[in-house]
């Protein structure tokens, strides 16, 4: 039995505060890391290119539209490949990923289409103290994304970004219901597949440093759901430098109780 590959697809825009750690934490888990940079204006591209010089498995692409990120992975359909989608605000536990990779290698999850892991949606992060506060999934939704591309014949666009939208053609015996939802059955402390989701924190030097305040960027789903009037209003607010929060993130990632956690394993 051949060992499947794991290909990371990292979609980013202005992530220079954490991108080094984002990439470093998935290096050993992935056989290849495809970085799709949506025209970052901070030091994100410089940092990735520096890592690329040290690790040949990293492949950097500058893209003008998030939809192009799906084109970078569509060719892996119908191959023994797991596609691991990572955003610039996601720090994975590298030790947990190591154990997860061992299970993937022996085919433990071959009959699954998608794996959803645990997440802590961080409102506070203290790297020196190795401590974070935030909201857990569940009751929040899981944003982790690991797909078995050997379960499909093709995934054709148009897609708004990688793994969003389009038309998926499954192989016989597979369908979209084959989802392994770790986060519903395994606690945060015991989870192997888990991430710190930095969705409420400053991630770029281009963002103002505001002590104790959340920095909630609109995501692609927010922008695509806006009508013409909302888009005009968003552009005006951006022009005058007024921040707009993401309603999607507030609704999906701030549920339940605020909890604290030791995060030593995320910063080895």
Automatic annotation (TrEMBL):
InterPro entries: Glyco_trans_2-like (IPR001173), Nucleotide-diphossugar_trans (IPR029044)
Organism: Candidatus Electrothrix aestuarii
Name of the protein this chain belongs to: Glycosyltransferase family 2 protein
Signal peptide limits: none
Glycosyltransferase 2-like domain boundaries: 9-110
């Amino acid at each position: 039995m051949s060992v499947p590959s794991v290909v990371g697809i990292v979609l980013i825009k202005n992530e220079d505060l954490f991108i080094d750690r984002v990439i470093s934490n998935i290096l050993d888990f992935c056989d290849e890391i495809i970085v799709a940079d949506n025209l970052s204006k901070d030091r994100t591209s410089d940092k990735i290119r520096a890592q690329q010089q040290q690790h040949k498995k990293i492949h950097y692409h500058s893209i003008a539209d998030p939809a192009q990120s799906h084109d970078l992975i569509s060719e892996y359909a119908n191959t023994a490949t797991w596609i691991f989608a990572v955003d610039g605000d996601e720090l994975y536990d590298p030790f947990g990923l190591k154990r997860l990779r061992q299970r993937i290698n022996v085919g433990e999850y071959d009959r699954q289409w998608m794996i959803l892991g645990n997440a802590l949606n961080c409102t506070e992060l203290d790297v020196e103290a190795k401590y974070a506060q935030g909201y857990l999934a569940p009751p929040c939704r899981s944003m982790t994304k690991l797909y078995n591309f050997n379960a499909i014949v093709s995934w054709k666009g148009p897609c708004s970004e990688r793994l969003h939208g389009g038309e998926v053609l499954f192989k016989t015996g597979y369908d979209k219901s084959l989802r392994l939802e770790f986060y519903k059955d395994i606690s945060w402390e015991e989870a192997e597949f888990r991430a710190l989701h930095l969705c409420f924190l400053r991630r770029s030097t281009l963002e103002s440093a505001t002590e104790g305040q959340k920095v909630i960027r609109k995501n692609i789903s927010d922008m695509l759901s806006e009508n013409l009037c909302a888009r005009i209003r968003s552009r005006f607010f951006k022009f005058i430098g007024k921040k707009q929060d993401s309603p999607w993130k507030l609704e999906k990632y701030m549920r339940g109780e605020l909890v604290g956690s030791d995060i030593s394993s995320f910063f080895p």
